[in-house]
Amino acid sequence: MEGIERLRKYSRSWDFDGDAMDRLTAIADEIEAEIAEKYMELPVDADGVPWRDGETRFVNPNGDECRLVSLSFSFIRHEWLLEGEIITKPSDIQRCYAPDECRHVKPRTLEDVLHDFSSSYVAYYFDNEMNYDGTDAHVIAKYAAEIRELMGGAE
Fold first, then answer.
1. Residue 18 within any structural domain of the chain
2. Is residue 46 part of a domain?
3. Which residues contact 70 (CB under 8 A, 6 or more apart)?
4. Is 61 part of any domain?
5. Are 119 and 100 within one domain?
6. E strand or H helix at 136, and its extent?
C-alpha cells in the first residue's frame, strides 16, 4: 500500500535510533495488517474501472444495457457480483454478473433523452402519417418516464 510505504520511507529519512525505527515499522505493519483484515478492494469492470455503490447503469457481457440493482458480495464463492435488471428488456428478471465481464455506461443526459425522443417521435409520425390519429402516447410516456428518472423521480 502506497501510503504505508511512504510512511516507512519517511521514517527512514529521519535520524531515529534503532528502537524508534523498530517501533515505527511495527506501527506501519499493524496498520497494514488491520487494513488487510477488515477491508477489501472494490471490484473493477472489464476496463479496470472500479465499481462503486450508487452507480446506475452498465453493459453486461451480452451487450445489453442494465440498471444496477446492487453491488453485492457472494459469501459462498467469496467474489463480487453485480445484480442488475436489463433495461432494454423490462420483462427480464434480475440477474447476477461478474463485475470484470461488464462495462460502465456513461449516464444519459437530458439532451440524450430529448434527442432520442425527437427522433422517435418523428419516425413514429412518418410511419403512421397516412393513418395518424394522435395515438402517440406510448412514445411520449416512454421518454417522460426517463426524464422523470433523470430528475430523481419527480412528477
1. yes
2. no
3. 82, 83
4. yes
5. no
6. none
- Number of domains into which the chain is organized: 3
In a domain, 49, yes or no: no
- State residue 89's pLDDT score: 59
- Give a three-class secondary structure readout of 55-108: CCEEECCCCCEEEEEEEEEECCCCEEEEEEEECCCCCCCCEEECHHHCEECCCC
> In sequence order, what are the beta bridge partners of 82?
71, 97
Task: Give the three cell numbers for residue 9.
Answer: 520511507
Q: What is the pTM of this model?
A: 0.48
Question: Domain span at residue 17?
Answer: 2-38
Distance of CA 144 to the CA centre of its chain: 24
Grid cell in block for residue 22:
523498530
Below-70 pLDDT ranges, the chain: 16, 54, 73-78, 86-93, 128-135, 153-155
